[in-house]
Specification:
Elements lengths: L14 H9 L4 H8 L3 H12 L3 H25 L3 H12 L6 H17 L5 H22 L1
Helix pairs in contact: 1-4, 2-3, 4-5, 6-7
C-alpha cells in the first residue's frame, strides 16, 4: 500500500536568492511578495531550514550588506569622489559646514531671541543688552 502525502506540496525556496535580497536591505514581507509566497511561509521555512527565526537571519545578512556598502563608499571617497568625502567626513568625523564659532554664535543668538519675548520694561532690555555684549566678548575671546 502506497501512502499519499497529506497537504500541499512543499514550496521550493531559493535561499541564495533571498540572501541577495536581504544583503540589499529588502524586508522579508517584500521578498515573500516578490517570490509569490506568503510571508508566514517564508518565516516558518527559515526556522525549518536554518534553525533560526527570520528576524535574526535577515539581520545578519543586512549587516553584511551594510559592511559592503561602507566599503564601497570608502573606496569611492578615496577614489576622489568629493561628495562622498564630504559626506563621510560629516558622518564619521563629526565635521560640519559651519565653523564652530558660527555654531556657538547661532546658539547664543537663539537663546537671546528666546529671552526677548519676556522683556516687559526698559530694565529688562538693558539686562538683555548687557548679556548680549558679554556673550559677544566671550565669543571674540574664544576666536583668538
Amino acid at each position: 500500500m502506497i501512502k499519499k502525502q497529506a497537504g500541499r506540496k512543499k514550496i521550493a525556496i531559493d535561499w541564495n536568492e533571498i540572501e541577495k535580497y536581504l544583503i540589499a536591505g529588502v524586508s522579508g514581507n517584500k521578498i515573500a511578495n516578490s517570490l509569490g509566497i506568503c510571508d508566514d511561509t517564508l518565516f516558518a521555512r527559515c526556522v525549518e531550514d536554518h534553525k533560526v527565526n527570520f528576524s535574526d537571519y535577515s539581520a545578519k545578512k543586512k549587516q553584511k550588506g551594510d559592511s559592503l556598502l561602507h566599503v564601497k563608499q570608502y573606496q569611492s571617497a578615496m577614489g576622489g569622489n568629493v561628495s562622498m568625502l564630504i559626506w563621510l567626513g560629516k558622518q564619521r568625523l563629526g565635521q560640519t559646514d559651519q565653523p564652530k564659532d558660527t555654531q556657538e554664535f547661532n546658539g547664543s543668538l537663539a537663546n537671546l531671541l528666546g529671552v526677548m519675548h519676556m522683556i516687559k520694561s526698559s530694565e529688562d532690555f538693558d539686562s538683555l543688552v548687557q548679556l548680549a555684549n558679554k556673550n559677544a566678548a566671550e565669543l571674540k575671546d574664544k576666536s583668538k
